[in-house]
Amino acid sequence: MKILRQRESLGAQQDYESAMTLLADVRRSGPVLRLYEPAPTVAFGRRDELRPGFADASRAARESGFEPLVRKVGGRAAAYHGGCLIIDHLESAEDPTSGIQDRYRLFGDMIVAALEELEVEADVGEIPGEYCAGEHSVHGTHPAASSTPGRKVKLAGTAQRVVAGAWYFSTVLVVEQSEPIRSVLTDVYAALDLDWDPTTAGAVDDLRPGTTVADVERGIRKVYGMYSEYLGYGQLTD
Prior knowledge:
Elements: E1 2-5, H1 12-29, E2 32-36, E3 41-44, H2 46-49, H3 54-63, E4 67-70, E5 78-80, E6 84-92, H4 100-116, E7 122-124, E8 138-141, E9 152-163, E10 166-174, H5 179-192, H6 204-207, H7 213-231
Parallel strand pairs: 1-2, 3-4
Antiparallel strand pairs: 2-6, 3-5, 6-10, 7-8, 8-9, 9-10
Helix pairs in contact: 3-5, 4-7
């Protein structure tokens, strides 16, 4: 399996289009794991685009320095920036629809395992009031020493797209600086007239202060290395 470490964002739209290009090519290139830190983006779902407040929500995103993007996969609006790590897994398959739920479970568990390498308590499952709600979100729990013991926050969202002969699974993991994400989503969800609880938006460094994207990436690479034989990928190569 080839690891493609994108060193800098190409911009919200270009990063997304690059993933679609990789998906089209993966049937002949073999499985690819792409890792990168994105440009500030609010990724809307198609249902958001149909809401009367979509133009205002897009304007609110831009005013906060986040580029609006409408994606073909995923649910409601989600925000990410350079303090996040995007993990794109692309692979060919004769029947890419057959393993959709298995992939959600497997890759969610792998994110949890990577966070556990950093002694961050995490699990898979939707928490009430989260943005871009989904049953396969990854959430973390504030440690007992925190001022808010036991409170759960969303750390990662996952989505996938299936095309003829291939699939694409994407995870956005918020590692640093959750406040800008809470702020822009507060404005965006207000414009869309959607309810959510801003206290559910968090980052890994809220739970483990000082954690960096590089720390989490090392955990992701370690877990992928551990799982590579099980997944049938053999050696991971950059």
